[in-house]
Amino acid sequence: MVTFIFLFWTLGSVFLTLNVFRPLAKRSNSSFRAILVSFVLGWLVGDLLPQWILLNLGLLLLFSFSDIFSMPLGWGGIVVHVSGWIILMLRLWIILNLPARLKLKMEAQLGNLWTKISPNFVPPRNIFEIDWQSWFNPNKSVDDPRIEIIRDRVFHQEAGFQLKLDIYRPRNTKKKHPGILQIHGGAWITGSKRQASFLMARMAAQGWVCFSVSYRFSPDIVFPEHLIDVKRALRWIRNNAEEHGLDPDFIIATGGSSGGHLASMMALTQNRAEFQPGFEKADTSIQGCVPVYGVFNFTDPFDEKSPFPAKAKVLKILCRGTPKTRPDCYQQITPANWISKQTPPFLVIHGETDALISATETKEFWEALQNEKVPHSAFLRLPLVEHAFDIFPTLTAQCIVPTIAQYLIMLHENHLNHSGEK
Q1: For the chain, what are the domain ranges?
Q2: Which of 157-171, 222-236, 321-335 has the lowest mean pLDDT?
Q3: Which pLDDT score is estimated for 167?
Q4: Alpha carbon of 315 to those of 185, 230, 371: distances in Å?
Q5: Which member of 156, 387, 412, 415 is catalytic?
Q6: What is the pTM (predicted TM-score) of this model?
Q7: Is-catalytic flag, 244?
Q8: Architecture of the 99-297+334-419 domain
Q9: Which of 13, 218, 257, 264 is catalytic?
């Protein structure tokens, strides 16, 4: 029995290692549950590698009380496990060296606008500069004496529901600070506004006021109700800007996955009356957008040439139909259809090993932005990076979030220069 368990565990480790580098569940024919499991396992094993190794060392210790290591099978298993750890550590070494590559990509796309900005915090350059405490205890990333966090402030309520937001702000709120509107992911059907708290806390420590907002979920509502909820949050934020030391003239939208889609729609549909029922005259302008592993394609999942049945199932819930039965909704929900000369700057980011959303659809959205010559924009395609890489302050997040922060600072500096405030 012990031999069977050891064998099963060893083979499982092999598959989990392979899944980090190439998700084993195929989007074209796998169920939603299979794709979700593949993503979660790839994300946890890849980004929480130190914890994974410690867990496996504990299991090896338990097996040492049996006679498994008196057989060739036991020693062979150890070789397999150690080889897997080395391969996974090689991935982390690549991630640790990623910031230098990102710097070159941003310089190539943004030129002097990027090179003249000095980042307020930098990614780790070696293992000694990694924030190990936050990696092992994510709560440490928001435990910063320079900031305060206000939870569950109600920004909208009607009969039957309340919408709330969290505020991350610097202790000094006397002057006007730039703002961030953070929209969480969760396939429009679930999620938590505490996602991306690492970015929010870091930006608040640098003098930004950050608002992480909630919205209602499908199937209770249908698009564009999700977008309307977030625009209600933006209206509340601007109405209460003075209380929180916010500059209402500079707010960046950001979000991951479905939140990346909604952030993009916020930037692309500024002041559109059809998405602001009852508050048509409210200012819902956005000065920039950073969608991370966002969703941009809403028709290909239904095409026989590019099937994605799991995503199609979610979209049917989101729009209460298909592109054939609800063409207006699918036309409305697609970000590329809203790109115009008034589109603000975008930093579009996607991981190449994303198990949930293909980086190809983000690349196509980026090409649409380029066709319209959207200024001060950039696209980062990240090697060996999974979906939701920024939720916990892992090494992956620590190496990528500083680039996002520097881009936000760049947009703000540019805004100040053009508004004559600097």
Answers
A1: 2-95, 99-297+334-419
A2: 157-171
A3: 97
A4: 14, 19, 27
A5: 387
A6: 0.95
A7: no
A8: 3-Layer(aba) Sandwich (3.40)
A9: 257
